[in-house]
Design brief:
Number of helices: 3
Number of domains: 2
CATH architecture of the largest domain: Sandwich
Structural class: mainly beta
CATH class of the largest domain: Mainly Beta
Order of helices and strands: EEEEEEEEEEEHEHEEH
Radius of gyration: 19 Å
Shape: globular
Strand content: 25-35%
Number of strands: 14
Largest sheet: 5 strands, antiparallel
CATH topology of the largest domain: Immunoglobulin-like
CATH superfamily of the largest domain: Immunoglobulins
Strand order of the largest sheet: 1-6-5-9-10
Helix content: 10-25%
Distance between the termini: 41 Å
Length: about 280
């Protein structure tokens, strides 16, 4: 079953760049209740007004089950506009549980507010909406990565456990602030395998561990837990310092400490590898 979501879960979704066809205004109108058996489950949590394209990731459910299998397209329109342009998405499945793949598109949101969106899949058109913020909460590409420490066995910063993966992962040997800006690129994943509200944290952390050997000595890998404790009430100080509104996230950071990639919500092995490759070219 699909886990219950809060604001950290699915909020909305939209599309990409190259136009395929225009969607008439009537297509955004409400559809009969029985048509809502197909649901877009958007996992991108930090869309914001910008002239630059942003990654939008979402899964698809049919009834109460994830069913991200077939091709899908999306359309989007700004607040007050009931027309959109249909664009293709790419489905990433490798490294994620069966049916839990994520569709990814890249869209530009020049203005904040509630954007109209439309999912086209399985011969159906499912309208939904996406809230675009005035400004991002989390650090963005091209900015300096926050220089904040992260929990280690030697200095937990009040976080217990420092890793909820079973068994614990080995990516907690040095605090994050001692890795960033030292000349070697860094890939840091913020995820909580035991408490993740979307249940994607465990699989994506496993993906990162599987890729580690391919980038040995070229990229430093690091993991940060989301919460201070297994109660899941308060976020860890590193997560607060980075301003992350959800989980999981992965950031790729160059040797000078500049953010070169950010993925949130869910991501397949190929997306992670593409961001790592961009660091070591």
């Amino acid at each position: 079953m699909i886990p219950e979501m809060s604001r950290r879960g699915f909020l909305a979704a939209v599309g990409s760049t190259a136009a395929v066809a225009a969607i008439p205004a009537a297509a955004f109108a409400a559809i009969p209740q029985q048509e809502r058996a197909i649901s877009p489950l958007v996992v991108s949590s930090d869309l914001y007004a910008s002239p630059e394209p942003q990654r939008v990731a979402f899964a698809v459910a049919v009834g109460k089950r994830y069913a991200s299998f077939t091709d899908a397209q999306v359309a989007f329109g700004p607040p007050g506009v009931t027309e959109g342009t249909v664009v293709d998405t790419r489905l990433y499945k490798k490294g994620l549980p069966r049916g839990r793949g994520v569709y990814v598109a890249h869209a530009t949101f020049p203005t904040p507010g509630a954007w109209n969106a439309l999912l086209l899949t399985r011969g159906r058109r499912i309208p939904f909406a996406v809230q675009v913020k005035d400004a991002p909460e989390a650090p963005t590409i091209g900015t300096q990565a926050p220089q904040s420490p992260s929990p280690t066995a030697a200095a937990t910063l009040g976080v217990k456990p420092i890793c909820t993966r079973a068994p614990q992962c080995p990516l907690h040997d040095q605090p994050l602030d001692q890795l960033i800006g030292t000349g070697t690129p860094v890939a840091v994943m913020f995820a909580t395998p035991a408490l993740c509200q979307t249940a994607y944290c465990g699989p994506v952390l496993d993906q990162l561990l599987d890729l580690q050997d391919q980038y040995a000595e070229r990229v430093r890998f690091h993991h940060v837990e989301i919460y201070r404790s297994n109660r899941g009430a308060d976020v860890a100080p590193t997560v607060a310092a980075w301003g992350l509104p959800s989980e999981p996230w992965i950031y790729t950071i160059d040797g000078d400490g500049i953010i070169r990639g950010r993925l949130d919500g869910a991501f397949g092995s190929e997306e992670i590898a593409a961001n790592l490759d961009a660091l070591v070219r």
